[in-house]
Design a protein that fits this description.
With 172 residues, the chain is an alpha/beta fold. 51% of the residues lie in helices and 13% in strands.
């Protein structure tokens, strides 16, 4: 089950970084700030809650991949505070990021960030939660992941616990 989880994290990360590059190439800022081949040089990511294991794994993979591609990646944690997320996104835009990646704390609260970025010609990649006015969303299908997790858990219980187990589900 850990291999499946890791594969999902790696796939999501690769999709996120590749999408950021494609968004930039498709019509963000001009190539003056980009490396050869329209790869963004500076990417800003405002994560909604970095303490969650999902985001810890995502950020670890993003840092590794950004280093491989020569991308300067700056990550700021909003810590579930919408005002902090808006401020962080504005700071990253002021610093001249080529692409902004955003895991919204609140969908409605992220709309002004999209409008400001669009006005400044900065492509935005939204992660996980759709936001009105977005052009690019990278997300997993929660239902499919939950279903697959349930199937793998059932296989484990059947193989290791004679099919009997007491389960407590705790979520964020």
């Amino acid at each position: 089950m850990k291999r499946t989880k890791l594969a999902v994290f790696v796939l999501a990360l690769v999709v996120l970084l590749v999408t950021a590059g494609l968004v930039f190439a498709a019509g963000g800022k001009e190539a003056g700030t980009a490396a050869k081949g329209n790869v963004p040089k500076r990417v800003g990511y405002v994560v909604n809650y970095s303490m969650h294991e999902w985001y810890q794994n995502l950020m670890k993979g993003m840092k590794e991949r950004a280093a491989q591609l020569g991308i300067q990646l700056e990550i700021i944690d909003a810590n579930l505070d919408m005002a902090k997320q808006v401020s962080a996104a504005e700071d990253l835009m002021a610093k001249g990021v080529d692409v902004l990646i955003l895991s919204p704390v609140e969908q409605k609260g992220a709309e002004p960030i999209l409008r400001k970025a669009e006005a400044e010609g900065i492509p935005v990649v939204i992660e996980a939660s759709a936001v009105e006015g977005m052009k690019t969303l990278v997300a997993i299908c929660d239902y499919d992941c939950g279903f697959k997790g349930g199937v793998e858990t059932a296989k484990y219980f059947k193989a290791n616990m004679s099919g009997k187990a007491r389960i407590l589900a705790v979520d964020l």
